[in-house]
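Quick one, probably user error.
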């Protein structure tokens, strides 16, 4: 298996960087008859592995909003208000994790020591898993 991996690595002749971009959360995702959800509305770094989950939550809240609000502009506004705080927190936590996971020097040593003693509970994310999605 090791020889296969080495052969695969040496066979690659064209390596490309895969840049990751981030932006601050924005509270408005709609304009006129169009709204966004998932990474189109609130792109996030992959250091929390929640992009698809946020898109599914968005879809559930958006569907509920469209069913319960009197018109589309009101439904879109309701959807944005219901989702902004949670998605912003996920975006910001993914950014924090990027810093933690890629730390170097003394910060890296401290991170490794804390994780070794306490485990991943120190990352503190019970708010993320199993949460009730607002409006549904």
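Nope, works fine. Designed sequence:
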């Amino acid at each position: 298996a090791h020889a296969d991996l080495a052969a695969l690595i040496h066979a690659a002749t064209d390596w490309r960087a895969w840049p990751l971009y981030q932006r601050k959360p924005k509270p408005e995702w709609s304009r006129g008859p169009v709204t966004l959800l998932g990474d189109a509305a609130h792109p996030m770094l992959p250091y929390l592995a929640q992009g698809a989950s946020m898109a599914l939550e968005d879809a559930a809240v958006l569907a509920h909003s469209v069913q319960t609000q009197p018109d589309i502009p009101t439904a879109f506004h309701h959807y944005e208000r219901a989702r902004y705080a949670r998605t912003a927190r996920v975006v910001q936590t993914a950014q924090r994790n990027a810093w933690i996971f890629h730390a170097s020097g003394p910060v890296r040593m401290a991170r490794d020591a804390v994780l070794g003693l306490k485990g991943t509970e120190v990352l503190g994310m019970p708010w993320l898993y199993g949460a009730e999605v607002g409006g549904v």
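The two ends are 48 Å apart (CA to CA).
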